[in-house]
Amino acid sequence: MAVAADLDRAADEDPAWFKNLEAEPSVGVQVGPRRFTARARVASPAERAALWPRMVEIFPLYAEYARKTERVIPVVLLTPQA
User: Fold this and answer.
1) What is the spatial distance between Cα 61 and Cα 69, in angstroms, rounded to a whole number?
2) pTM confidence score
3) Do residues 5 and 74 make contact, with C-beta atoms less than 8 angstroms apart?
4) Pairing of strands 2-5, 26-31
5) CA 2 to chain centre
């Protein structure tokens, strides 16, 4: 599983790519040299609560972006498809 954050540098609304995922959750993903098709879904509040601290640890600017907006930045889970 891959994880992505709906970031648009702390914009007050979701970026276009996130809206596209909501409309069509089948996506192509590349992580390093690995390419795969995945199904995207927004993490539940409990999943987000578990993932967000680790995401901030890996990329501290996520915390700064979150402080600059009133919205909760969604976390997107990408599950590889067979």
Assistant:
1) 13
2) 0.83
3) yes
4) unpaired
5) 9
Residue type present at position 9? R
Residues making up the chain, counted from first to last = 82
**Ramachandran sector of residue 6 (left: φ over 0; alpha: ψ -120 to 50; beta: rest):** beta
DSSP secondary structure, the chain, as one string: -EEEE--STT-SS--HHHHHHHH--EEEEEETTEEEEEEEEEPPHHHHHHHHHHHHHH-THHHHHHHT-SSPPPEEEEEE--
Please report the pLDDT score of residue 17 as a whole number: 85
Q: Which of 12, 28, 32 is nearest to 20 (CA)?
A: 28
Q: Which residue's structure tokens are 């098709």?
A: 37
pLDDT tens, position by position, 5-64: 766 666 778 888 888 988 999 999 998 999 999 999 999 999 999 999 999 999 999 899
